[in-house]
Amino acid sequence: MKTLYRLTASSLIALCVTSPAVAQDETSEPEIVVTGEGLEPALSNIVYSTVEIDRDVIVSSGSGRIEDVLSGVAGFQQFRRSDSRSSNPTAQGVTLRALGGNATSRALVLLDGVPIADPFFGYIPLSSISPDTLSNIRVTRGGGSGPFGAGALAGTIELESAGPATLGNATASLLVNDREETELSGAVAQKLGGGFAVVSGRWDRGQGFFTAPDDQRVPASARAAFDSWQVGLRTVAPLSSDVELQARVSAFDEGRNLRLDGADSNHEGQDASIRIVGRGDWQFDALAYVQARNFNNVIISSTRFVQVLDQRNTPSTGLGGKIELRPPVAEGHDIRIGTDYRRSDGELQEDAFSAFTGNLTESRRAGGVNSNLGFFLEDDWSIGPIVLTGGLRADHTRIEDGFFRAVNPDGSLVSETIAPDRSDWAVSWRAGGTVNAARGLSLRAAAYTGLRLPTLNELYRPFVVFPVVTQANAELENERLEGFELGFDWQPSRDVALSLTAFDNRVKDAIANVTLQPNLRQRQNLPAIDAQGIEGTLALAFGTVSLDVSLAYTDATIDGEEASIALDGNRPPQTPDLAASATLAWEPSQGVRLAGTLRHVSSQFEDDQETDILSAATTLNLFAQVPLSDNVSIIARAENVFDETIVTRNSNGAIDLGVPRTVWFGVQIGL
Predict the structure, then answer these.
(1) Less Cβ crowding at N or C end of the chain, within 10 Å?
(2) Phi, psi at residue 132, to the nearest 5°?
(3) Are 245 and 236 in contact (CB under 8 A)?
(4) H helices within 213-298, ranges in order?
(5) pTM of the model
(6) In this predicted structure, what is the pLDDT of residue 16?
(7) Angle at the Cα of 585 (from 579 to 590), degrees rounded to 5?
(8) Residue 28: pLDDT above 70?
(9) Which CATH class is domain 43-670?
(10) Interacting residues of 511 by C-beta distance below 8 A, sequence separation 6+
């Protein structure tokens, strides 16, 4: 399919790990072929504002980064505009619908059904996701319940991995840009009996670019250098004619520099998951996973250019799972019932140093354990041209073992916080319906609530973006979402598809970095963030040419009137009111694709006081793939063709910039 968006429900492919596929003897029964997919997506997908991105779009972005691909979805937003090569990893929170953020994700991101947010910080390890290994992406905007529903405050982003049918037996690519940076990726896919195995990897390295503008550079200014790799093994094996085992293991590591010499960071992770999917009369989906992550970071003084903080170790562990059952209860009803669980624990270990003497002044430790146990029930009811859906979810959240402790070099106590353990039950729901009003035209309406726990980072870890200090807050409450939306999907022909949605979302107790003094902030629960807006997509196909357009306009404000807070009526930080994207592609023959993406993001505020502005930015990315033979293609890419100034941070005039014009050239081999 040549269009960027398919406005209908489609299959969810689940990725999991592990044991070798089961080979079958030639004299045995006919071979059982598995796909590696999860259960069919719920029919309720057509009730909510859902967008799908096909593989031809996923693998043809100008940058080759997953965040660039997702930016083509109306309403998708990173905490900062910088990509995953030139930002601090902890700033890689993602959200939808301009609900604001503080570097923690308000959208739930799943890789083959497994949540991938960092257990301690809540950011998304974007550099660990290679678009080349994905077959499809589904984005559902707005809150909702269901499997892993806690955390899907602004919506859900489902990444689906590709198998041998998509990847072929083997594929590899090598690209080099005009800064002599390299990108090397590859995958080997092998059918094994009725199953298959896929081994994939990627290595990105480069000197980066100066994030500081010319007039703000000093002798200590450094390029945003990066060096990252990731590898993964995924296997799928049949256990019976309608039951299959899916397993996955992966690892990643990335080092970066930010702005100044010595301001280095590193994050690494190892993940494993296993899944059993049954497609008989009683369908089921059972999943378990474990994550091990670590992060370290050095803060350099922006005035004396010496180390002032060494966040030397932040180990964390995440584990969880879900069980979903779909019983054949009644004609016309698709029922899902199940439970899911997530647990995150981690600890920060850091040392503070004097900017004048270089001596150790304080050592700190902080951490805790968060857990969430959910029970869900959903029913999709088909009545002729009408689909009605309703879901109920109950979550037991627990925050425990929280602490912060700071000591002098001699071991004497400077400060200590022992947070009391607490737990709570919360009920969320969602309901909606769609009706085929005319040929190709469906009308839909939905309402929902949602839940997100504060992360360990928000609760216990203070941080410094020199000279601004942001304090943690062990008393943070859970965020709650209330929202509704109205929309329509119109597809008068296979070559034209239009979708439009109007929404009103409200996040109560929204967690934000609130300014207390010029250089002091604290994470606090705001009374609410309100966001009302319109989002739309248009997909057109003219033979070998396609045009895909997305646009989101959002009026988002902080609601603090009842609490009489000074921020009442302010726009949430890092929140543009307009984001638009248009991709024009031409595929004149097999294997040839030429595409250009024009993207605009309006201005936004850096801080809650609305004093520092990030100016609007309009960028153009280009992509070209031309085959030289059946197995070899030439690839050319260009980022920010106009060399637009992209301001990613503005702290009292101290500015960081996004990627300048960058041209890539390379080769791709497929067998």
Answers:
(1) C
(2) -60, -25
(3) yes
(4) none
(5) 0.92
(6) 34
(7) 150
(8) no
(9) mainly beta
(10) 102, 104, 454, 458, 476, 479, 523, 524, 525, 526
